[in-house]
């Protein structure tokens, strides 16, 4: 769902240091530009050995700040460009840059920009494993995390030195995701635990056949992405293989029974609150427990029935005959089976009957004992899997229309609306 994210009006400064991973910064810049952000780049002299400034100027349509272009008749300098930016993303960040930043050393233009910058900095390490795991580098990263610097952990994979280890820069999509929560974050959702269910449940007939539905899970993924961007601590329980979503906790399930089990467990954890890391300016050196009432967004399409006698192996066509009667039994209602005390709940409801859709949604409010029903009126089965949506938020007192838009934009609008309902 990251492909639907729009960053229009957001100003992003990307810092590139002298690592072989500098070429991946081109992909990251391209993601920001494609999303509509205004992007500018500052490079160290070492970075220019791997990628030329001309490459980034072509991608961003803006002049790159480096030693040969700094000027004081505009904001193309280490002070002005920082005052322009909403967020500063250093990708890749070498071990040299990390250790210098932790000691406030500013002996190149990129480090001067970092030292002068007053907003959120996102640091994306990329270095040989031994360099990153050296006690001094590890200490520098711990110190930087205590400041207002977010560290996007590197990957374990084949490195440029031809050895496998932890040190490859995080994927551009992951860095893009992490930066979202610093561009969209708001106090209401920040550090609030939220459980989202998505996809259509799968009820096995035998080892090769099953009963399911047309749900794509795209609206659930849009909710996950929007909630992450707003700063929530998200647990995503889904029947689908997640697409392009932020790095949230994902639990993969199949049946309605599994979804009930794991949703129950997730809500129990959600009620315990969130432990937050102390900042450099905090009076306490210990994590603090933040307790905000959790939310449940029940966006999964749960099968009403399941086969009464699922079979091991594969049922043979010859044994079944020309007619086959499959006995079904009713699934347990997930929402009615959960302990939702102290939890705000939004139930998604798809309807094909336009005339009675609102009436059915209001009935679901009472029967399911939920706070809000997100009503989605579909045309037919072809409506599933679309890139856009329109919903009506239904409460006992009112209905709020969320107009047709991309599913991510609808999710953002929903999060803004439900706070006041």
Question: Which helices and strands appear, and what pairs or packs with what?
Answer:
Elements: E1 11-16, H1 22-34, E2 38-43, H2 53-60, H3 80-84, E3 87-93, H4 95-102, H5 109-116, E4 120-125, H6 129-132, H7 135-146, E5 149-151, E6 155-158, E7 164-168, H8 172-184, E8 193-198, E9 203-204, E10 210-211, H9 218-230, E11 233-238, E12 249-252, H10 256-270, E13 274-276, E14 288-290, E15 295-298, E16 305-307, H11 317-320, E17 328-330, H12 334-337, E18 344-351, H13 357-368, E19 372-377, E20 388-394, E21 399-406, H14 407-418
Parallel strand pairs: 1-2, 1-3, 3-4, 4-5, 8-11, 8-15, 11-12, 15-18, 18-19
Antiparallel strand pairs: 6-7, 9-10, 13-14, 16-17, 19-20, 20-21
Can you summarize this structure?
By secondary structure, the protein is of the alpha/beta class. Helix content is about 30%, strand content about 25%. It folds into two domains: about 10-155 and about 165-180, Rossmann fold (3-Layer(aba) Sandwich), CATH 3.40.50.1950; about 185-315 and about 325-420, Rossmann fold (3-Layer(aba) Sandwich).
């Amino acid at each position: 769902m990251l492909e639907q994210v729009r960053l229009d009006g957001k100003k992003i400064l990307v810092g590139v240091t002298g690592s072989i991973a500098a070429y991946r910064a081109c992909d990251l810049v391209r993601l920001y530009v494609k999303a509509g952000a205004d992007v500018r780049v500052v490079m160290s002299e070492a970075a220019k050995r791997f990628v030329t400034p001309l490459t980034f100027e072509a991608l961003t349509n803006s002049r790159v700040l480096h030693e040969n272009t700094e000027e004081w008749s505009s904001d193309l300098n280490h002070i002005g460009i920082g005052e322009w930016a909403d967020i500063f993303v250093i990708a890749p960040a070498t071990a040299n840059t990390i250790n210098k930043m932790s000691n406030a050393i500013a002996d190149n233009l990129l480090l001067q920009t970092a030292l002068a910058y007053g907003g959120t900095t996102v640091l994306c390490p990329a270095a040989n494993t031994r360099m990153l795991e050296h006690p001094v580098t590890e200490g520098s990263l711990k110190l930087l995390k205590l400041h207002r610097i977010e560290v996007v952990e590197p990957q374990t994979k084949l490195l440029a030195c031809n050895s496998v280890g932890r040190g490859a820069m995080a994927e551009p999509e992951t860095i893009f995701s992490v930066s979202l929560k610093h561009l969209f974050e708001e106090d209401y959702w920040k550090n609030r635990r939220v459980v989202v269910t998505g996809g259509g449940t799968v009820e096995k007939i035998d080892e090769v056949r099953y009963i399911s539905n047309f749900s794509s899970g795209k609206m659930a993924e849009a909710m996950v992405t929007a909630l992450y961007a707003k700063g929530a601590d998200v647990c995503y329980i889904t029947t689908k293989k997640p697409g392009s979503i932020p790095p949230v906790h994902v639990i993969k399930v199949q049946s309605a029974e599994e979804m009930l089990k794991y949703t129950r467990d997730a809500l129990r954890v959600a009620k315990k609150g969130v432990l937050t890391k102390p900042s450099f300016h905090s009076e306490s050196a210990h994590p603090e427990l933040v307790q905000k009432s959790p939310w449940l967004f029940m966006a999964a399409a749960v099968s009403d029935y399941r086969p009464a006698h699922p079979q091991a192996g594969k049922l043979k066509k010859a044994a079944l005959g020309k007619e086959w009667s499959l006995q079904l039994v009713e699934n347990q209602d997930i929402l009615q089976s959960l302990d939702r005390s102290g939890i705000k709940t939004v139930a998604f409801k798809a309807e094909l009957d336009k005339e009675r859709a609102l009436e059915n949604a209001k009935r679901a409010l009472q029967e399911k004992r939920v706070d809000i029903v997100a009503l989605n009126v579909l045309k037919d089965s072809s409506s599933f899997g679309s890139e856009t949506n329109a919903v009506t938020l239904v409460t006992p007192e009112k209905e709020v229309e969320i107009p047709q838009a991309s599913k991510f934009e609808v999710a953002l609008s929903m999060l803004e609306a439900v706070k006041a309902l």
